[in-house]
Specification:
This protein is an alpha/beta fold and 394 residues long. The chain has two domains: 4-101, no CATH class; 106-388, Aldolase class I (TIM Barrel). The chain is built from twelve helices and 15 strands. α4 (172-186) runs parallel beside α5 and α5 (210-228) runs parallel beside α6 (248-254). The structure holds iron/sulfur cluster (SF4). Residues 138, 140, 143-144, 147, 149, 203-204 line the site of iron/sulfur cluster.
Length: 394
């Protein structure tokens, strides 16, 4: 059994989505959020493509899906009727669900006192994530094959970067002050009225600078903690590569970070080395050790890792998730989506693979007493919440 809104989300994740011209006119009229272009852009899409859809089931369960690139002829087409009501052109998708574009937060149009756009400092992913991305691009020795961040960010002009990846030119104090101004304004936006997931996330500095990266994340957390603590459902989440010196994990914790996320992306060889050559050079063993050490520092359930679903078979991946859970680490996955700049040789996983994986993962996590990460209206973990909420069951 799979509920209608989750069925549509799974179909979009497995086949992709496109829009009729009429639906795109609605996107214009309602102020749909466009591609953030902070680290990815769907393959073959324009920069003003809507970024996300909010889908609501008949029982008012809400979920958000990323408008991923169409991958085959069976992709979902979103159209609208005479009253601007969006619907999916698919006979298997029930018509009594509600579909709408996720709108751009009001702060997307605002400027800081110095004239810089707030979106140079914070942006929203899904409905209720507040993303803090202190620099653009990734300087890892060998980028992951699914990731197009360096292609996308190199094309975007007028971005304030706190840290120039090429010159190591830090003007961090100024950045922190502007970031704080941006956070204070953004947190009052309607998109965060229920709660917000505050996530510090970025590509990586050069491999030999990962200790510095950890220290910069700690400075950011320390700066914004008092401003976000009342609304942030998980406190501050740091999504990063671990420092080389794992003693720095304590510094991260003391700065106000409450959850760390070291994304393995791939659980098993030979896929890890093939798809994440740079992370492989830093070391799978090091990442595992960092995850385990973090459980001692941050506590069970406060240490997460994410996988890219579709880069390896799911049975051994679930085995890795189980081993991690036994050590106190919670895992999830984001379904592979094809972005500009990817160098992949594998297809997006099919509907059956996706729904099976998330159903099995939810059962596993219930056994170990873990909650899913984020919520169904954030974007980073595909169907984890829906499966946990029994929207996908046998
Ligand atoms: S580490 Fe890999 S996934 Fe992360 S930003 Fe760099 S290239 Fe992309």
């Amino acid at each position: 059994m799979i509920t209608a809104e989750t069925m549509l989300k799974a179909k979009i994740l497995s086949h992709g989505v496109s829009f009729t011209p009429k639906a795109l006119e609605v996107a214009d009229r309602v102020g749909a959020k466009r591609q953030n272009l902070v680290y990815n852009q769907p393959l073959g899409s324009s920069k003003d493509r809507p970024q996300e859809l909010l889908i609501m089931g008949v029982d008012r369960y809400e979920t958000v899906v990323s408008c991923v690139a169409p991958v085959n002829d069976e992709h979902i087409i979103i159209d609208c009727d005479a009253s601007d009501k969006l619907f999916a052109e698919d006979e298997n998708v029930e018509s009594d669900i509600s579909i709408s574009f996720v709108r751009a937060p009001k702060y997307y149009k605002l400027l800081l006192k110095n004239g810089a756009p707030i979106t140079d400092y914070v942006s929203a992913c899904g409905l209720d994530e507040m993303n803090i991305i202190p620099w653009r691009g990734c300087a890892i020795s060998n980028p992951c094959l699914f990731c197009g961040t360096n292609v996308v960010t190199s094309e975007k002009n007028s971005i304030q970067t706190a840290f120039d990846l090429s010159e190591d030119n830090i003007c961090f104090d100024e950045y922190l002050s502007l970031l704080r101004e941006a956070v204070k304004i953004a947190k009052n936006d309607g998109c965060y009225v229920e709660h917000m997931h505050v996530i510090i996330i970025s590509g990586n500095l050069r491999d030999e600078k990962l200790n510095l990266q950890c220290e910069l994340y700690a400075k950011i957390a320390q700066t914004i903690y008092a401003d976000i603590v009342d609304k942030a459902s998980e406190g501050i989440i740091a999504v990063t590569m671990p420092p080389k010196n794992l003693d720095l994990l304590l510094k991260l914790k003391e700065s106000g970070v409450s959850k760390v996320v070291f994304n393995l992306e791939v659980g098993n060889e030979p896929y890890f080395s093939r798809y994440c050559p740079g992370k492989s050079a830093i070391g799978y063993g090091h990442m595992m050790e960092a995850l385990e050490r973090s459980v001692k520092v941050f506590g069970k359930g406060n240490v997460w890792t994410n996988f890219v679903l579709g880069l390896e078979p799911i049975a051994p991946l679930l085995d890795v998730c189980e081993r991690l859970a036994a050590r106190g680490v919670s895992s999830s996955a984001n379904v592979l989506h094809l972005d500009k700049g990817n160098r992949l040789d594998c297809p997006v996983p099919n509907f059956e693979t996706i729904t099976t994986f998330f159903r099995e993962l939810a059962m596993l996590h219930k056994r170990f007493g873990f909650m899913p990460l984020y919520c169904s209206k954030a974007l980073r973990t595909s169907l984890s919440n829906e499966a946990f909420d029994d929207r996908i069951s046998l």
